[in-house]
Specification:
With 155 residues, this protein is an alpha+beta fold. Helices cover 25% and strands 26% of the residues. The strands form two sheets. It has a four-stranded antiparallel beta sheet, sandwiched between helices. A two-stranded antiparallel sheet has the order 1-4. Strand 2 and strand 3 form a beta hairpin. The N and C termini lie far apart (39 Å). The mean pLDDT is 90.
Length: 155
């Protein structure tokens, strides 16, 4: 990737990174997709996601899976890491966290397709696995149906 395609990236390579203490969607940065004519899937996995229960304040731990088909812009991974880390002191239900992440990424990138899955650890004997998706290009409407059924059947 040529350096002129990285104009919006400020966090990657920055040695003075400050870690947020609360939800910070403004941290998300993008770069230009170098292959906009190709439809391809990008999968991002965060194994160490944490947030707080909005009622009890107890920590919740999850693995977050993000799958998207980029259009013009792509999310920069260090900014995503810091953004996901910003949920550490954020109080929201599992379903809300997953939908917030998906909506923030849709606003940021306007992808052709995106889905976000939260695989939350069991607490109180119940594990919760919310799945949210967005179709930005109607060519991927059938994929969305298949992914929803797959998410439903894998539980």
């Amino acid at each position: 990737m040529s350096r002129n395609n990285t104009d919006g990236i400020t966090l990657l390579g920055n040695q003075g990174t400050k870690f947020p203490t609360d939800y910070a969607p403004q941290l998300l940065e993008t770069f230009e997709n170098q292959h906009p004519g190709n439809d391809y899937l990008v999968t991002l996995v965060c194994n160490e996601f944490t947030s707080l229960c909005p009622i009890t304040g107890q920590p919740d731990f999850a693995k977050i899976l993000i799958n998207y088909i980029p259009d013009v812009r792509m999310v920069e991974s260090k900014s995503l890491k810091l953004y996901l880390g910003s949920f550490r002191n954020h109080g929201d239900f599992h379903e809300d966290c997953v939908n917030i992440i998906m909506k923030d990424l849709v606003r940021l990138m306007e992808p052709k397709y995106i889905d976000v899955t939260g695989i939350f650890n069991s607490r109180g004997g119940i594990a919760i696995y919310p799945f949210a998706q967005h179709v930005g290009d109607e060519r991927f409407a059938e994929l969305a149906k298949q992914r929803m059924l797959q998410a439903f059947n894998n539980k």
